[in-house]
Amino acid sequence: MAVFVALGAFLMTLVGGWTAQRVTDRRHLVLGLAGGLMLGVVGLDLLPEALDAAGQDVFGVPAALLLFVAGFLFAHLGERLLAVRQAAHGASDERVPEVGLTAASAMVIHSLMDGVAIGAAFQVGGGMGLAVAIAVITHDFADGFNTYTLTSLYGNARRKAVAMLFADALAPVVGAASTLLFTLPEQLLGSYLGFFGGVLLYLAAAEILPEAHHDHPARSTLLFTIAGVGFIWLVVGIAG
Fold this sequence. Notes:
Elements: H1 2-21, H2 27-54, E1 57-58, E2 61-62, H3 63-88, H4 97-124, H5 126-153, H6 158-178, H7 186-214, H8 219-239
């Protein structure tokens, strides 16, 4: 049942990626929406789930928040290291394709864990499984949208962006199937969500949104960002 439901996430991810490809003449709006979706996923979905699941405090601070900060710093450090390598090759004014591939790979891992979450929820019960599946399938539109956008934003060829999109679409199915073999500890899932939330927040705040407003500091771009956050809020509210 879990694998069958995860096929819905597969299709929704492809729809999100297809949408991102069709709006190249409104790139700033695409990026503004992507930034809003990422911000909404982090603040309204990933971080609350991480705080609930990770549980214990570490020296007075919830473990999920520590990993959230660690994820943010990890993304920042990774980008700085790639930028230094880029500058050493005399290409400091160009985007580094590896950054986009790394970011998209993180999205694939996240989608894999989405599938694991679906399978684990069905291990608890059918009602819980369907509730989690609805949330995952709905926000996988944003995952597909962001995976294609992140890959292409950094100068990767379209074929690579499409390949990452298909990998992201397949990941929930693989993740759901894997739960037939093991049970994922709740604290481990919460820790992962916290760390990945920090990575996504860095990408949204330091890369996607500044790029969206660089050439088009328009009010419409800001409205699309707010709409992205609002959409995730609606999804979380319906799923809850």
